Amino acid sequence: MIKIFVYGTLRKHEDNHIYIEGSKCIAEQGWVYGELYDTGLGYPAVKPSLESKTYGEIFEITAEQLKEVDQLEGFVEGAKDNLYERVIQTVHTDKGTVDAYIYISERMDMLGEPILDGDWKLYRFLQEQPETFFYFAYGSCMDTERFQKAGVGHLFTKVKGSGILDGYSMKYLFARPDGGRADIIEDGGVTEGIVYDVPFEAADYLFRREGFRGGWYRPAFVDIKVGEKLLTNVLTFHVYNKKEELAPPVHYAVEILRGSKGRLSTEYYQKLESELYRLGLLKTI
Description:
Order of helices and strands: EEEEEHEEEHEHEEEEHEEHH
CATH topology of the largest domain: Hypothetical upf0131 protein ytfp
Strand order of the largest sheet: 1-5-2
Structural class: alpha+beta
Shape: elongated
Largest sheet: 3 strands, antiparallel
CATH class of the largest domain: Alpha Beta
Radius of gyration: 20 Å
């Protein structure tokens, strides 16, 4: 099988994902060094960079699928007038690094508006500004007390239900001076949380609370099961720079337990308790 990193319309639930549909996804939260641009033609392009990051997904595809993607991307081996070039690049994931094919371009006619956040899904979300969207909270945002104190409680009154995020574990990997904060890591685990149905104006509050512009948490779009239904492109947050797990401060742990009790499964709530106990915290709550 052939590994390919996709960052635009080949990503999950995007227009051209059909070309690799059914392929195994190796990582949803991958990134490479590269500058992302909007071509103005309904799809993006990546230009090589030593500093900027572009986010996307890694899939394993067949040789036949690769031929079809080559055709889609306007790539012919050895040609000098390709739309994109196909190269091998190191992709960073929560589990480590993987070498995979990526389509890049340095043609100036392809490099339109820079996508500074490096994420095509996020770029489209901010451009389209949907009237409402689903937001998956797995940490302190399961609790509503801080929403009320911030004067945004009215934005989070509509709850779709408890949700399940497959393929990720919740750990306290975001380091702050007083302890760790919740994060999701793509390690094959399962994370439960609360799915809110919120108006677009809630995004601004969430971005500020999660320190998006300060490089704390990055908006990510995931698939969440709510009962028998699968919700796609649900907004959640993923820590940029993960550290060794740290026990959270007591007030933060209280928010997580209060926000999840009676709302998530009994088994998962007990798991939250046991993890806090393992980190030496439950004795103080």
